[in-house]
Design a protein that fits this description.
Blueprint lengths: L3 E5 L3 E7 L3 E7 L4 E7 L17 H14 L8 E6 L17 H15 L3 E7 L5 E6 L5 E5 L4 E3 L1
Parallel strand pairs: 5-6
Antiparallel strand pairs: 1-4, 2-7, 3-4, 3-5, 7-8, 8-9
Length: about 160
Protein backbone atom coordinates (compact mmCIF):
# COMPACT_ATOMS: atom_id res chain seq x y z
CA UNK A 1 0.00 0.00 0.00
CA UNK A 2 1.25 3.43 -0.88
CA UNK A 3 3.89 1.98 -3.17
CA UNK A 4 5.00 2.88 -6.69
CA UNK A 5 6.48 0.51 -9.26
CA UNK A 6 7.82 1.36 -12.72
CA UNK A 7 9.17 -1.01 -15.33
CA UNK A 8 9.93 -1.38 -19.02
CA UNK A 9 9.02 -4.07 -21.59
CA UNK A 10 7.55 -7.34 -20.37
CA UNK A 11 6.21 -7.64 -16.87
CA UNK A 12 3.02 -7.48 -14.89
CA UNK A 13 2.37 -4.95 -12.14
CA UNK A 14 -0.40 -5.82 -9.68
CA UNK A 15 -2.33 -4.21 -6.85
CA UNK A 16 -4.38 -6.58 -4.72
CA UNK A 17 -7.34 -5.46 -2.66
CA UNK A 18 -8.15 -1.92 -3.77
CA UNK A 19 -10.98 -0.54 -1.67
CA UNK A 20 -11.07 3.22 -1.20
CA UNK A 21 -7.49 3.40 -2.53
CA UNK A 22 -6.91 4.14 -6.20
CA UNK A 23 -4.57 2.25 -8.45
CA UNK A 24 -3.17 4.59 -11.10
CA UNK A 25 -1.52 2.99 -14.11
CA UNK A 26 0.56 5.16 -16.43
CA UNK A 27 1.65 3.80 -19.79
CA UNK A 28 4.07 5.08 -22.42
CA UNK A 29 3.43 2.69 -25.33
CA UNK A 30 6.32 3.85 -27.51
CA UNK A 31 8.82 2.41 -25.06
CA UNK A 32 6.47 -0.04 -23.30
CA UNK A 33 7.21 1.79 -20.07
CA UNK A 34 4.62 1.59 -17.34
CA UNK A 35 4.07 2.57 -13.78
CA UNK A 36 1.57 1.67 -11.10
CA UNK A 37 0.86 3.70 -7.97
CA UNK A 38 -1.24 2.62 -4.99
CA UNK A 39 -2.76 5.91 -3.84
CA UNK A 40 -4.22 5.79 -0.34
CA UNK A 41 -5.01 9.45 0.38
CA UNK A 42 -5.60 12.57 -1.69
CA UNK A 43 -3.45 15.23 -0.05
CA UNK A 44 -0.13 15.23 1.81
CA UNK A 45 -0.71 18.55 3.60
CA UNK A 46 -1.61 16.81 6.87
CA UNK A 47 1.10 14.16 6.71
CA UNK A 48 3.28 13.40 9.70
CA UNK A 49 7.07 13.17 9.72
CA UNK A 50 8.23 9.73 8.65
CA UNK A 51 5.12 9.05 6.57
CA UNK A 52 5.50 7.30 3.22
CA UNK A 53 4.76 10.31 1.02
CA UNK A 54 4.11 8.28 -2.15
CA UNK A 55 0.77 7.15 -0.74
CA UNK A 56 -0.64 10.64 -1.39
CA UNK A 57 -1.92 11.54 -4.87
CA UNK A 58 -0.22 14.95 -4.87
CA UNK A 59 3.21 13.39 -4.21
CA UNK A 60 2.92 9.84 -5.55
CA UNK A 61 1.78 10.63 -9.07
CA UNK A 62 4.48 13.24 -9.86
CA UNK A 63 7.04 10.85 -8.33
CA UNK A 64 5.88 8.05 -10.64
CA UNK A 65 6.06 10.33 -13.68
CA UNK A 66 9.63 11.31 -12.74
CA UNK A 67 10.66 7.66 -12.36
CA UNK A 68 9.16 6.82 -15.75
CA UNK A 69 10.97 9.76 -17.36
CA UNK A 70 14.25 8.29 -16.09
CA UNK A 71 13.42 5.14 -18.07
CA UNK A 72 12.84 7.20 -21.22
CA UNK A 73 9.12 7.97 -21.11
CA UNK A 74 7.77 11.32 -22.27
CA UNK A 75 4.73 12.55 -20.27
CA UNK A 76 3.19 13.94 -23.47
CA UNK A 77 2.78 10.38 -24.78
CA UNK A 78 1.57 8.84 -21.52
CA UNK A 79 -1.97 7.70 -20.81
CA UNK A 80 -3.51 6.91 -17.44
CA UNK A 81 -6.09 4.46 -16.18
CA UNK A 82 -7.65 4.55 -12.71
CA UNK A 83 -9.09 1.66 -10.73
CA UNK A 84 -10.63 1.66 -7.26
CA UNK A 85 -11.90 4.51 -5.13
CA UNK A 86 -14.82 2.54 -3.73
CA UNK A 87 -16.99 3.80 -0.89
CA UNK A 88 -16.01 1.22 1.72
CA UNK A 89 -17.02 2.98 4.94
CA UNK A 90 -20.54 3.86 6.01
CA UNK A 91 -21.11 7.31 7.47
CA UNK A 92 -23.65 8.35 10.10
CA UNK A 93 -26.42 8.38 7.47
CA UNK A 94 -25.63 4.77 6.51
CA UNK A 95 -23.89 5.65 3.25
CA UNK A 96 -20.36 6.55 2.16
CA UNK A 97 -20.73 10.31 2.13
CA UNK A 98 -18.70 13.24 3.41
CA UNK A 99 -15.48 12.44 5.24
CA UNK A 100 -16.35 8.75 5.07
CA UNK A 101 -16.08 8.65 1.28
CA UNK A 102 -12.32 8.77 0.96
CA UNK A 103 -12.59 6.79 -2.29
CA UNK A 104 -14.36 9.64 -4.07
CA UNK A 105 -11.79 12.13 -2.72
CA UNK A 106 -8.94 9.89 -3.90
CA UNK A 107 -10.40 9.62 -7.41
CA UNK A 108 -10.89 13.39 -7.65
CA UNK A 109 -7.34 14.08 -6.44
CA UNK A 110 -5.87 11.61 -8.95
CA UNK A 111 -7.86 13.14 -11.80
CA UNK A 112 -6.74 16.65 -10.82
CA UNK A 113 -3.10 15.66 -10.53
CA UNK A 114 -3.13 13.95 -13.93
CA UNK A 115 -4.84 16.97 -15.49
CA UNK A 116 -2.15 19.25 -14.02
CA UNK A 117 0.51 17.00 -15.57
CA UNK A 118 -1.40 17.01 -18.91
CA UNK A 119 -1.73 13.22 -18.88
CA UNK A 120 -4.87 11.92 -20.62
CA UNK A 121 -7.07 9.48 -18.72
CA UNK A 122 -7.76 6.64 -21.17
CA UNK A 123 -9.99 4.59 -18.90
CA UNK A 124 -11.48 4.26 -15.44
CA UNK A 125 -13.15 1.60 -13.33
CA UNK A 126 -13.79 3.66 -10.21
CA UNK A 127 -16.20 4.35 -7.35
CA UNK A 128 -18.98 1.94 -6.41
CA UNK A 129 -18.77 -0.09 -3.19
CA UNK A 130 -16.78 -3.23 -4.06
CA UNK A 131 -13.11 -4.00 -3.67
CA UNK A 132 -11.01 -4.97 -6.69
CA UNK A 133 -7.62 -6.15 -7.85
CA UNK A 134 -5.81 -4.83 -10.92
CA UNK A 135 -3.15 -6.44 -13.12
CA UNK A 136 -1.25 -4.26 -15.60
CA UNK A 137 0.55 -6.09 -18.43
CA UNK A 138 3.37 -3.88 -19.73
CA UNK A 139 3.84 -5.91 -22.91
CA UNK A 140 0.30 -5.12 -24.10
CA UNK A 141 -0.70 -2.14 -21.97
CA UNK A 142 -3.88 -3.96 -20.92
CA UNK A 143 -5.31 -3.91 -17.44
CA UNK A 144 -7.48 -6.67 -16.03
CA UNK A 145 -9.74 -5.70 -13.13
CA UNK A 146 -11.18 -8.41 -10.92
CA UNK A 147 -13.87 -7.53 -8.39
CA UNK A 148 -14.09 -9.23 -5.01
CA UNK A 149 -17.21 -11.08 -6.25
CA UNK A 150 -15.24 -12.62 -9.14
CA UNK A 151 -16.47 -10.40 -11.97
CA UNK A 152 -13.58 -9.61 -14.33
CA UNK A 153 -13.21 -6.96 -17.02
CA UNK A 154 -10.49 -5.53 -19.22
CA UNK A 155 -9.67 -1.86 -19.18
Amino acid sequence: MGDIAVARNAGILTIIGLGSCVGVALYYPKGRIGGLAHIMLPDSSRSRPGTVMEKYADVGLPTMVDRMKKLGADPIGMTARLVGGASMFKGPAGNGTGVFNIGESNVAACRNCLKAQKIRIAGEEVLGNKGRTMRFDLATGKIVVRYVDGVTLEL
